[in-house]
Design goal:
By secondary structure, this protein is mainly alpha-helical. The protein has two helices and no strands. Helix content is 67%, strand content 0%. 0% of the residues are buried.
Length: 82
């Protein structure tokens, strides 16, 4: 028994060509996403400058105390007035 098979639709195998509008729309979306990340980056830099993380503050206080105490010890060992 012989059966007929439907023919393949040639147009269904290929993607439709992208229009200029599609390309422009993709570029616009990419720029909008990039702007969001740029604005977030700027926000985080300003926020970290205004209120630095507590670990950073503690490290700086420790460093200042360390230098100050060792300077005083050095001066006291040399028997020089401050």
């Amino acid at each position: 028994m012989i059966t007929t098979v439907p023919t393949i639709n040639v147009g269904a195998r290929f993607k439709s060509p992208r229009t200029a509008y599609d390309k422009m729309h993709d570029n616009t979306m990419e720029m909008d996403v990039a702007n969001v990340f740029r604005m977030l980056s700027a926000y985080f830099m300003v926020a970290a400058t205004i209120t630095p993380p507590t670990a950073f503050i503690n490290i700086n206080i420790f460093s200042i105390n360390y230098v100050f105490n060792h300077t005083l010890n050095y001066l006291n060992d040399r028997n020089e007035p401050c």
